[in-house]
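Database export, one record per block. Field names are fixed; values are copied verbatim from the stored entry.
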Amino acid sequence: MRHPEFTAMLVPARVYPQIWRLLLGVLLILFIYVSWSLLVLGGAVGLVAAEQGLWGVMPFFQELQVGRLPGSVALLLLTFGGMALGPVLAAAALHFRGPGTLIGPWGEWWRGFVTAFAVVAVVFGVLMLASAMIWPPVANMEPGRWLMWLPLALPLLFLQIAAEELLFRGYLMQQLAARFAARWVWFTLPALCFGLLHWDPEAGRNLPLLLLSAFAFGLVAADLTERTGSLGAAMGFHFANNLLALFILSIKGTITGLALYVTPWGLAEEGMVSLGLMVSILLLFANWWIIKALLDR
């Protein structure tokens, strides 16, 4: 049984639910994402080559892969512009849907975003403070420099989480739900694709836990979207989670260029990182339970 809010959200998606439209839409999104990324990276390469010559291009790409500088992280976040634009254009061109139909009612979006953001920020923030008292993190950025980057970094972070939610909980989940009645198709498959997007060989033996954590988030975000008929709660959850993980305390060896602090251990190290991933999965569902209880009131 689907929530009535989600059923109402699917009305525009049911007008043109054909699977060939969805598949063509996915290809269009991929094309736009790749094209946008090449445009952004090409422009950055041009600036680097003009300033440092061709010898500076290879170090630039190497740094971009590791994400240890603020500019590298900002550039990576900017590449998600294509992923944000793709679902909007695919929905318009192939299903004749406006951007608002992907997002849901504005009032419900705002209520869900603020509620989810506040809950996740408090729960995960308290956990970070508690863990920092036991295992002190390593300073990574000077606070003054970090504050200077925030006005640019925060909108780019919102762009990144909005892109992923528009694609997975907006376009894919809604169009699959408009075409298929089976819950595992429209609810689980987008979450599984979202989880696999986080594949990182650098995680070593922690990779299964990393993928499980991303898959769990996909399920939670899908439930919040179905429950509210809006992307607001999923986006608020996503924004708070990534804000803490990318800008406050990042795992050493990951994308740390805009983080105030980094952990003393790397992603592939077993023990504390493995335990941390397991705890984070449990806290994902704890946050979900609190958010849904507040939104259902």
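Remark 1: The chain has a mean pLDDT of 91.
Remark 2: The chain has one domain: 4-295.
End of record.
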